[in-house]
Write a structure and sequence with these properties.
This protein is mostly helical. It contains four helices and no strands.
Amino acid sequence: MNKPTRTPKQAALAAISALPDAASFEEIAYRLQVLEAAAAGTAEIEAGKGIPHGDVEAEILHELDRHHLRGLLLDGLASGPGVVADDALFAALRNEARDTGPA
């Protein structure tokens, strides 16, 4: 990235100047912490240590799927016992499929 670089002091002064005059020390410290975290993240990305967007997206989708499946399992558990899957059940299902014919 070829943008003009500011020193940390310049960046801090600009961040503090953007705050209202009535800003508390806590608000100022928070703004500086955010600024520091953003600078560290930018440095990691520039050093090639970042995680590609596609990888992050795939991980999020994986977690969503995992949570969805967990929800289904918990719903099934909460629904109580179902039909016993024995030979009689499968025979009835085969007969029903045979009687219905191809879709």
